[in-house]
Specification:
By secondary structure, the protein is mostly helical. It is built from five helices and three strands. This is BED-type domain-containing protein.
Length: 168
């Protein structure tokens, strides 16, 4: 009896190993095909070079005159880097994924917390101090409209509302 239980256990283990192999083979064939084909496929025509047998990609985007770009790339495997770069640099086309990855420019004022403006009497004192500084250092009235000046003042005192040239 001990032999038959060992034989049954061996067969059960053998069946499990077979199942694992089948799953792995299915997974391997699944990976060969791209889940998300590249967005470049809609802009490039795929052909086989009759002389070399290489896969080529030809840009099919039309210019303003209606002429096809026809820039040709040899495609080795599934690499799309050169195709993406061509679309970006020549035709100004980027994928939605790459658009999300692009860093956006952040102004220094984006980091400043919004605060309440000063009460009128304190605001007036600050404006008078600004006027004294401008007169003593020979600053032009346009200094208060300079973007760098506004950013600096916002950092130093975000509650101060910078007056325009006419108010000074």
């Amino acid at each position: 009896m001990a032999d038959s239980s060992n034989e049954t256990e061996f067969n059960n283990n053998y069946d499990q190993n077979d199942a694992e192999v089948e799953v792995n083979e299915k997974t391997a064939t699944k990976w060969k095909k791209r889940k998300n084909p590249s967005f470049t496929n809609e802009y490039f025509e795929k052909i086989i070079d009759p002389k070399t047998g290489d896969e080529l990609r030809i840009c099919k985007i039309l210019d303003d005159d209606g002429n096809q770009c026809k820039k040709t790339y040899r495609n080795t495997g599934s690499s799309t880097g050169n195709l993406i770069q061509h679309l970006d640099l020549v035709h100004k086309i980027i994928s939605q994924e790459n658009e999300k990855k692009k860093p956006h420019t952040t102004k220094i004022t984006d980091y400043v917390k919004s605060t309440q403006p000063y009460p009128p009497h304190i605001q007036r004192q600050r404006e008078e101090g600004l006027l004294k500084w401008m007169l003593r250092t020979n600053q032009p009235l346009s200094a208060v409209t300079n973007e760098a000046y506004k950013e600096m003042m916002n950092i130093f005192d975000s509650s101060f509302i910078i007056p325009g040239e006419k108010k000074i």
